[in-house]
Amino acid sequence: MWKYFQMLLLLMVLLAHCHHAMGDGIWDYAVTAKTKIIFYDEHWREVTSSAHQFDYLSAIAFDETEEIVYFADRLHNNGSIFSLKLPRGGSTDDTHIIETIVHRTQNETISSIAYDPLDRNVYWVDQRSKKIYIASIGRKETESPKVFMDFAKEETLPDGIGIDFCRRKLYWTNSNFTNATIERIDLSGHNRKVIVSTDLYLPHGIVVDQLSDRIYWVVDQQGAHFTVESANLDGTDRRIVVKGINSTPFNLAVTKDLIYWTDQRHNAVFTHTKVASEKKNQTEEGAKEATNPHIIFKLQEKPSGIIGRSRYMTTLKQDDHCSGVVNKIKRRLLDSNIVSSINNNPSNMTLLHRDYCLNDGEYIAQSGICICKVGYVGARCETNECHNYCMHGTCTMSSTGQQKCSCQHGFYGKRCQSSKCSGYCLNEGECKIDNNGDPMCECADNFSGQRCDQNSTEICSLFCRILKYDSDTYVPFGCHDICEELASANEETARLYAIPTYKHLEVCKDQVTWTNTIIIALVAGVVSCLCLVLLIVHGVRRFYKPARPRIKKTFVVRRQPAASSDTPLTNRPIATEQCEITIENCCNMNYCDTPCFDPKMVQQTLSRDNNAKEDKKILIHNMEDDLY
Ligand SMILES: *[C@@H]1O[C@H](CO)[C@@H](O)[C@H](O)[C@H]1NC(C)=O
Ligand SMILES: *[C@@H]1O[C@H](CO)[C@@H](O)[C@H](O)[C@H]1NC(C)=O
Ligand SMILES: *[C@@H]1O[C@H](CO)[C@@H](O)[C@H](O)[C@H]1NC(C)=O
Ligand SMILES: *[C@@H]1O[C@H](CO)[C@@H](O)[C@H](O)[C@H]1NC(C)=O
Ligand SMILES: *[C@@H]1O[C@H](CO)[C@@H](O)[C@H](O)[C@H]1NC(C)=O
Ligand SMILES: *[C@@H]1O[C@H](CO)[C@@H](O)[C@H](O)[C@H]1NC(C)=O
Ligand SMILES: *[C@@H]1O[C@H](CO)[C@@H](O)[C@H](O)[C@H]1NC(C)=O
Ligand SMILES: *[C@@H]1O[C@H](CO)[C@@H](O)[C@H](O)[C@H]1NC(C)=O
Fold first, then answer.
1. Nearest residue (CA) to ligand 8, atom 5
2. What are the tens digits of pLDDT across the range 313-369?
3. Ligand 3: which atom is nearest the Cα of residue 155?
4. Quick check: CB of 283 below 6 Å from ligand 5?
5. Where are the domain boundaries for CATH 2.120.10.30 in the chain?
6. Could you name the CATH architecture of 24-277+292-310?
7. DSSP assignment of 345-401, as one string?
């Protein structure tokens, strides 16, 4: 009947996505008050509470894989340890299923519970009998719990226990204040070892943080003092995370970044970062915030146990020490999936189940939970942890589910929430981010300096004063206007300040050099342009009008006609009597081949005068007349 009801609900959820608010059973923290267990979401808003005729609740433990809470009641008549299963999947029915795990046999005083998800065992400390007990969840009803550790013959008073289910070890605090210790033993019952034995007064709760591979514990120190401490799993590198006054811490829970503890003096839950404040440099950003543990909220009743969801099935999947155990747990859960689907045989339901978990989350039918992929949280893995995580940057997810931001230029901080510009430029200077990502200021009038922290009026007035007595003093250029203003304000200031005289000179000199350079450049430019133009014109001309071939023609003329019978034209002249005429640039070879002159005219001129130069001139002249 319940299964069908659940199926109906699943359908409702799938059809109506708006169903979100309270009551979908997703909680991240739980605290036991005296008569009830209160569940909170990630922002410590109360989600639900369970108050089922409880008398005096103390310790609490949580099985994340099956969504079962184990808790102890010191006074309940029917039993001492109970299990509680909350309804899931958006159920409107708030039936809390409570079962008795351990029946009451005597007046136990249970101070602490731990759960081993691999073997499904519950461990608890009974302070009255000074024993640590173990009981299997799947055991038969008649089977009574076994004694795991017996301190009856020792001076040990066991108080808190914590389990390292990955490395299979159990840790406990011994709160006998005369000789308090922190010890551990293998879950197989061997290798008991004292790992911390100094400076402990009344140590109470202890937890193993599988993410950082450290143990954390709380100590009620002498007087009103208290500490929250941490150490490596073997007790080395012990650090005090918080040291304070006026608090009586009882138990604690550790998440990715924070520690939470229940305080029985104020009936409150406190928180602090996991990082030790003593290690932090006081000048560092955020140091102040980290050194002060603060109350998250107060309760009506005395709180004792506290648990936080660690999502180890997701975050420890790739952890060196945990992956083996996590995989074994997962196999067990998936096997139970097959069993439950065979039992019920609704193929449509498994289909729905597959769709129930978003973003590749794996559905565990037995407990009705999703095991999400790294980076997703929520009952249905619907929330991307990176979404909106980095304010000014991009978010990436580590294999252990830690968000990491790479910030944009000019931003810093864990979530890139801080701008390098904020508060950087003083006196209304305008801030910009340069290419190296460093802030840079553009100062308002009358201010200067890297952060506009210098009052220019103040600084310049010093220069203007010195100038009054030493006119050669160098004055920064920006001060000229200010000096002028100061000196001309009134008579009194005129006596004190001087105006730098070389102000205009300096400006002129600058201008002259500037002009000269320009002129030189211009002239050079114009000249080279002209040369270029000439070259081009010449080239073009050469291209279109190739030079005329130079043609030479040589005429040999006899100086004096021989007295003999031979004619002057056919007669070979004697070397001493001949004369040569060379005619260049004759346009037409054919024309030149023929005599370019009238022989009669030659005769005429030759007979007239014997001047050779004159002859040549006339010849050329005549030839040109013929040509053109
Ligand atoms: C305790 O046990 C008795 C008898 O077994 C039962 O009637 C009663 O309801 C139980 N009380 C609680 C609080 O479970
Ligand atoms: C438990 O303690 C109460 C009073 O403290 C006593 O009345 C009762 O008999 C005790 N029960 C057992 C089983 O010892
Ligand atoms: C605590 O230790 C002292 C001696 O160191 C011993 O006398 C006392 O009995 C112890 N107390 C318990 C509760 O074991
Ligand atoms: C304290 O305990 C340690 C180890 O458990 C033991 O060696 C030492 O003698 C004890 N001291 C006292 C004063 O009981
Ligand atoms: C803290 O930081 C300042 C400057 O950043 C440095 O001078 C100082 O030594 C640091 N102190 C410690 C304890 O690291
Ligand atoms: C599964 O759903 C289909 C239609 O969606 C239906 O025809 C079929 O009978 C269902 N099977 C079971 C086993 O409910
Ligand atoms: C700068 O200072 C001068 C006098 O020192 C003043 O007259 C002027 O108003 C100031 N300018 C601004 C923007 O404050
Ligand atoms: C800058 O200095 C001058 C002279 O000391 C002073 O009159 C003026 O108020 C100062 N300006 C600011 C913004 O502090």
1. 458
2. 888 888 888 999 999 998 888 887 666 665 555 555 555 666 788 888 888 877 778
3. 14
4. yes
5. 24-277+292-310
6. 6 Propeller (2.120)
7. --HHHHHHHHHHS-TTPEEETTTTEEEPPTTEESTTS-EETTTTT-TTEEEEE-TTS
